[in-house]
User: Fold these one by one.
Assistant:
Number 1:
Amino acid sequence: MRRMRFLAVWGAVLAVGLGVAPAQAAGEAGEATEADLSYHGSAVMRGGRVDVRLTPRNHGPADVSDSTVRLRWSVPLAAGAQRLPAGCARTGRQEVVCRTGALAADGLGERIALRVWLRGRPTEVTMAVDTLWGGGAVDRNRSNDRQQVLVLDTGDAYFF
């Protein structure tokens, strides 16, 4: 089951990375559906470990069957395997993607919680959060699903 989720996430990443447009749901007039995705949460860093908790939200007007959120750090992740939750995959030296699952219009998704280890125990890191794939829906307000947060190695929670 975990392998199937991993492959599904990688399939979405490859489709986006190769420029293959996912099928868009048709609205009443044959237009693509519209949804407005955003992410809110917190990040805490202690000794090179970053704990991230985020909740996806769809402000509507249409439901989204699934989407993918990307998290990027300003320093590389530690070498070797990261223990990521089901639905998340490491996609590069500094990047992890996670699927959100279905998001009802004007509703919250399941909270995503992950822990990553950074190379070299930095004292600060910038984490960027954005939508990689929006389930085929058009998002006309991309400003609220693209965020950056500076996280210091203090053990304090930094909210976004």
Note: Confidence is low (pLDDT under 50) at residues 1-28.
Number 2:
Amino acid sequence: MLEYRIDRRSGIATYVQIVQQTKQALRLGLLKPGDKLPTAREVVEATAINPNTVLKAYRELEREGLVEAKRGLGTFIRKSLGSDPAESPLHGELAEWARRARDAGLERDDVAALFTSVLEQHFKGDGEA
């Protein structure tokens, strides 16, 4: 089951973090159509956030057509996003690159900034990265 990690220092709204993490799990094939998302209560217990924040995120995902709420049953994935990059040979290459970056003394935020910069260079105008 998907476990959300909330970074209160990121400057990104909590509900947006939930939406982004759900989309990332969809892109990586960790969530597939028919899978159930954690209940709002489970997310609240794990993250100590307001239940309305979780519901707002789930409503946004529903508005985008990615999930479907079934009264009394929960919220379920309706469709996936993109291909399954976790199965790509590039996954291993990227993991090796991340290991080398860490070994070179880069902090997680440094690596994220570097990777984001490269993404912006190579995927201009492609929408969400």
Note: The helical segments are 14-27, 40-47, 51-63, 89-103, 108-122.
